[in-house]
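Lecture 7, part 2: worked example. A protein chain together with heme C.
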Amino acid sequence: MNILNVLFLSSLLLTQTACDNDSSEDIIKEESPETNPGVNTITYEKDVKTIIDNNCIACHANPPQRGAPMSLITFADVKNRSGAISDRMKDENNPMPKSGLLDATVVKVVDDWIAGGLKEK
Ligand code: HEC
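Predicted complex, written out as structure tokens:
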């Protein structure tokens, strides 16, 4: 197969997945390590901890503050709640942080971290 064929096929693939893309679950599935090796480089220590520290631990401290139900201080805390964290960081009606959704690029870092297998470092 020559390079043009490869390019044509990959653009076909991209167009198709873009059209199928109507739920957040789909986005997460697409970002699997097989389809996007970049997700493998995201780690808690390098990428995710800063996001949580800057936006969440004012309330999700240990002990939790201002009515927050759990702390998000440690790797285990964040890893164990990663599904709910990702959901609420995209929930316009019930956003986390409560002050309003963060930039989509920031939320994507968390989703890529999950897709890449929740690496610590
Ligand atoms: C101003 C305080 C505050 C900040 C900042 C905040 N939270 Fe929360 N969080 C709460 C409170 C209060 C609740 C419980 C009520 C609710 O679910 O809305 C909660 C609930 C949650 C839940 C649901 C817990 C469950 O039992 O399912 C998740 C997940 C969550 N927060 C994640 C986050 C993340 C991730 C951030 C940062 C991006 C964040 N929160 C920032 C106060 C906060």
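The first helix runs from residue 3 to 20. Residues 55-56, 58-60, 66-69, 81, 84-85, 88-89, 94, 96-98 surround heme C (CB under 6 Å). Keep this in mind for problem set question 3.
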